[in-house]
Amino acid sequence: MSLLFGLVACGAPGVNNTDATQSKELKVVSTFLPITLFTEAVAGDCADVTALIPPNLGPHDFQATPSDLTDLSGANVLVKNGLEMEEFLDDLIDSAGNKDLVVIDSSRGVKTIKAAGGGHHDDHHDDHHDHGHGHSHGEYDPHIWLDPVRAAQQVENIRDGLVQADPSCAEGYRKNAAQYTAKLKELNTEFTEKLKPYSGKTFVAFHDFATYFANRYSLKAEFLVDLPEMNPSPADLQQVAAQVKASGLKALLSEPQEGNRSFNALAKDLRVNIVEFNPLETGSAESAKVPGTYFEVMRSNVNNLVKAVGD
Question: Which is it for the CA torsion 160, 36, 138, 102, positive or negative?
Fold first, then answer.
């Protein structure tokens, strides 16, 4: 990435400068799909939101381009998930050279869970955890957006950050955020009732993304690998096979962007189905501009989860 930064520094700047000068809207860059959805919801007509990571790519697959640096150098605000989900950001921000850039960490103050099966952690992470760890997650599980209650906290953090960055549209940001968080709270109530009969049940997903969701609704989440790009070992497969047989699972949860052959083969061997649980790390360009995508996808996830855990 350093080579890219050097090339950009020597190249012609400002591909999008014309657009920037034509619009007086606040220029906001969001990182990946759920953060883009939440930011679009709060921004409404007050700000122009651009996704840093293309919606069809997850944070682990992202490689910065010169246009990404241009977007950041011309932005007023950057909104991130935090919790080391976007481990590349610090270097990218430094290379963009935008000293006035306001960074909103949507995870600020959100109750976190230790990564890799750790227990609850009441105190939020500090702000110095954005160090490179290859493609591993940091100390805390970053998938907070899959819990509607925590997602509402993220929306409120985005609201507060945009109000501070652009007081002229404070009323709009607050109104938009209030409407969206109300829907998130309704969604939580809906899921609580729908999943109550399955309290204590275990489900198995391909990668480790569902701990916050499972804890919210008194479920247990098992997983095959830590990260979606990892390949499971024979021991991993054997452990999941034992879990499936012990719990009577009817299905394993796969992700739309994953077509892991070993996971699919395991389901076939165990004579269980594969159903989709979309962790919302990726999506279409069209869906990324529609904040309601979150609700549509999450409702589909819950319906599929019910199929997985059975009666």
Answer: negative
Share of the chain above pLDDT 90, in %: 54
Give the CB-side neighbour count of residue 102, counting CA atoms within 13 A. 15
The neighbouring-strand residues paired with 105 are 80
**Contact indicator for 17, 74 with CB cutoff of 8 Å:** yes
Give the distance from CA 192 to its chain's centroid.
Answer: 21
Positions in the chain whose pLDDT score sits under 50: 1-24, 117-135
CA distance linking residue 33 with residue 49, whole number of Å: 12
d(CA 187, CA 124): 25
Q: DSSP letters of 134-188?
A: TB---SB---GGGSHHHHHHHHHHHHHHHHHH-GGGHHHHHHHHHHHHHHHHHHH
Cα–Cα distance, 190 to 188 (Å, whole number): 5
Q: How many Cα atoms are found within 13 Å in the side-chain-facing hemisphere of 167?
A: 1
Record the tokens describing residue 131, joined without a space: 């160090």
Residue whose C-alpha is closest to residue 52's, from 209, 100, 39: 39
Q: Which amino acid is at 211?
A: T
> What are the pLDDT digits (tens) for 77-136?
999 999 989 989 999 999 999 999 999 999 999 999 998 643 333 333 333 333 333 345
Question: What is the rounded distance in angstroms from the CA atom of residue 249 to the CA atom of residue 116?
Answer: 22
Residue 54 CA to residue 215 CA, distance in Å, equals: 30
The single residue listed with the structure tokens 């892991």 is 260
Q: How many CB atoms lie within 10 A of CB 164?
A: 13
Question: What are the structure tokens assigned to 77, written together?
Answer: 């605000």
As beta bridge partners, residue 29 has 50, 78
Give the chain's end-to-end CA distance (angstroms, integer).
Answer: 50
